[in-house]
């Protein structure tokens, strides 16, 4: 509920601080005094758009700040989702700077207008005469019947099933399209895969072939140089091995003369052994060098194939060709298994559809069962509101189509006069009648749901006398379970309020300003007497005002 409202430099209001109570609050004032300014200020902190004309003094900042007690509104999820600090006493502030820029804050954290509007809709519901048209909207009518029939939890469960069914249907459409596209590409993809698969690609193969080709292309040079190396190492008497062997023998004869000769002997022996091993390897390598033209042709053919595939697929290596081959293989397997996936998804969709229809059927039964009681309550309230011949009905028809609200078509029907046919509410009621129907429905709704702060802007238009008293009594009764504010011009309704604010204008030397003051008991008597007597405070008007207050 709204606990306080601060307005600075907004339209004709220079500065106002208001404290609000629970229950039913009335706001009165002469026509043009500025009651609509108050609604405009509330609109700013609930997400309505603003412009520079909102500021009274264009050179100064306009600030509207509201404090709301929100512990009963189950809003922690909203605050968490929007990364906002949750506080049971939440402060909403809107600023309009001299530059024309608008800023919004929730608990001192900057927020977007969309975030503010979403929260504002949960906290304040302003009903002007235009807003009364909401009663003819299908969403409101479904909300009304589902709340009254205690079907909100069931509706939530149904919508989960409905959303899952819709999601699966979308997935099926996408899968069928994928199959269609895949079939068009299947032959070509299959050809590409077969070509790569038959190539028997191996990681590192390209470098290996390059090395082999380099060897075969220079076989004569390699064999010649290897032979020279072998000859220099292994040739009898003049080869390096024989020369080192002679040196080793000489050192062997010095072993007994000191350790340094022994160490030199061992080092030379190791070198000789290594050289002998190198000689053997050189001989083996020389024997393995093959200048066979058939081998060279085979390797060249293989290299040309790899070059061709790399160029065709616009990659840089055999390894990337292997990745493409594997991906094509997976895609072809997916295409091969798509029919099984489609069949499984169709079976799942059928089950989800049956589940949604079952929940929708229960929704229909609960709604239908609640309609007689709802229509009875609304018609009784309409009688109290001066419409003794009013007829109110709810038309509920089930269809074989799933929608976000079930399988039902819902329409509120109304007739204000005896003997007249019931018509859809939007076509069968005047503006004043719609206001009373809205009040009746909201009165019923307030007993079944925690409503936001409800503000009625002259819902009493076209009402007077005893009917106004009854309307005031209904509003007062609604105020027992919620915070309700009514901007009224009727003393009969003003007298029913638990608290009373007066809006008035006062001229100064520089400008006209709007003021809003909370009235005490004596001030209320004077105000209501003025409303009764057209501004005159006669003894009869005073007595009547006291009577209305009591």
Secondary structure: number of strands? 15
Helix content: 55-70%
- Mean pLDDT rating: 87
**What structural class results from the helix and strand content?**
alpha/beta
CATH architecture call of the domain at 1-128 and 458-519: 3-Layer(aba) Sandwich
Oligomer: single chain
Show unreliable segments.
Answer: none
The CATH superfamily of the domain at 1-128 and 458-519 bears the name P-loop containing nucleotide triphosphate hydrolases
Q: Tell me the name of the CATH class of the domain at 1-128 and 458-519.
A: Alpha Beta
Total of DSSP H or I helical runs spanning 4+ residues: 17
Cα distance, first to last residue?
Answer: 26 Å
Describe the sheet with the most strands: 6 strands, antiparallel
Task: Give a written overview of the molecule.
By secondary structure, the chain is of the alpha/beta class. Among the domains are: 1-128 and 458-519, Rossmann fold (3-Layer(aba) Sandwich), CATH 3.40.50; 181-336, no CATH class. 55% of the residues lie in helices and 18% in strands. It has 17 helices and 15 strands. The chain has helices at 35-45, 76-81, 113-123, 138-148, 152-198, 205-217, 219-234, 240-252, 259-288, 293-312, 318-384, 425-428, 431-445, 465-478, 491-494, 521-532, 539-549, and strands at residues 2-10, 13-19, 24-28, 62-69, 89-96, 102-106, 109-111, 124-127, 391-403, 406-415, 423-424, 453-457, 484-487, 499-507, 512-518. The strands form three sheets. Strands 2-1-4-5-6-7 form a six-stranded antiparallel sheet, covered by helices on one side. Strand 1 (2-10) and strand 2 form a beta hairpin. Helix 6 (205-217) packs antiparallel against helix 10. The chain is elongated. The two termini are 26 Å apart. The model has no long low-confidence stretch (mean pLDDT 87).
């Amino acid at each position: 509920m709204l606990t306080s409202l601060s307005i600075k430099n907004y339209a004709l209001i220079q500065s106002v601080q208001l404290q609000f109570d629970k229950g039913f609050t009335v706001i009165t004032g002469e026509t043009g005094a500025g009651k609509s300014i108050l609604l405009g200020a509330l609109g700013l902190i609930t997400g309505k758009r603003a412009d520079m004309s909102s500021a009274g003094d264009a050179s100064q900042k306009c600030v509207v700040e509201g404090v709301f007690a929100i512990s009963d509104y189950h809003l922690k999820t909203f605050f968490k989702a929007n990364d906002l600090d949750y506080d049971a006493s939440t402060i909403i502030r809107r600023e309009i700077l001299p530059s024309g820029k608008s800023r919004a804050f929730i608990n001192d954290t900057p927020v977007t207008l969309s975030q503010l509007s979403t929260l504002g809709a949960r906290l304040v519901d302003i009903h002007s005469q235009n807003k009364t048209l909401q009663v003819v909207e299908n969403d409101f009518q479904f909300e009304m019947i589902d709340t009254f029939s205690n079907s909100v939890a069931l509706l939530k469960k149904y919508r989960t099933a409905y959303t899952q069914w819709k999601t699966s249907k979308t997935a099926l459409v996408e899968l069928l399209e994928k199959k269609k596209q895949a079939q068009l590409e299947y032959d070509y993809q299959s050809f590409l895969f077969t070509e790569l698969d038959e190539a028997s690609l191996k990681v590192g193969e390209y470098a290996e072939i390059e090395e082999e080709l380099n060897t075969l292309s220079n076989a004569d040079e390699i064999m010649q140089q290897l032979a020279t190396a072998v000859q220099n190492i292994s040739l009898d008497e003049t080869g390096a091995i024989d020369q080192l062997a002679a040196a080793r023998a000489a050192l062997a004869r010095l072993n007994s003369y000191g350790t340094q000769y022994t160490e030199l002997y061992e080092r030379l022996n190791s070198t000789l052994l290594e050289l002998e091993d190198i000689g053997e390897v050189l001989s083996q390598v020389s024997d393995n060098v093959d200048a066979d033209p058939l081998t060279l042709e085979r390797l060249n053919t293989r290299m040309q194939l790899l070059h061709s595939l790399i160029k065709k697929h616009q990659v840089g290596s055999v390894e990337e060709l292997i990745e493409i081959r594997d991906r094509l293989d997976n895609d072809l397997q997916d295409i091969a298994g798509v029919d099984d996936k489609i069949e499984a998804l169709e079976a799942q969709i059928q089950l989800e559809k049956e589940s949604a229809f079952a929940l929708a059927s229960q929704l229909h039964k609960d709604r239908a069962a609640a309609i007689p009681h709802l229509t009875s309550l609304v018609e009784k309230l309409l009688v109290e509101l001066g419409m003794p011949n009013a007829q109110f009905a709810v038309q509920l028809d089930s269809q074989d189509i799933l929608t976000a609200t079930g399988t039902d078509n819902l329409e509120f029907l109304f007739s204000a006069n005896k003997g007249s046919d019931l018509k859809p509410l939007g076509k069968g009621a005047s503006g004043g009648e719609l206001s009373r129907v809205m009040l009746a429905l909201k009165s019923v709704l307030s007993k079944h749901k925690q409503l936001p702060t409800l503000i009625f802007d002259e819902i009493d238009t076209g009402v007077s006398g005893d009917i106004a008293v009854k309307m005031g009594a209904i509003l007062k009764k609604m105020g027992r379970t919620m915070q309700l504010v009514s901007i009224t011009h009727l003393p009969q309704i003003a007298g029913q309020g638990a608290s009373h604010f007066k809006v008035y204008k006062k001229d100064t030397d520089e400008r006209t300003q709007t003021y809003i003051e909370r009235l005490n008991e004596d001030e209320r008597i004077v105000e209501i007497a003025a409303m009764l007597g057209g501004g005159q405070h006669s003894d009869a008007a005073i007595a009547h005002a006291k009577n209305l207050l009591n």
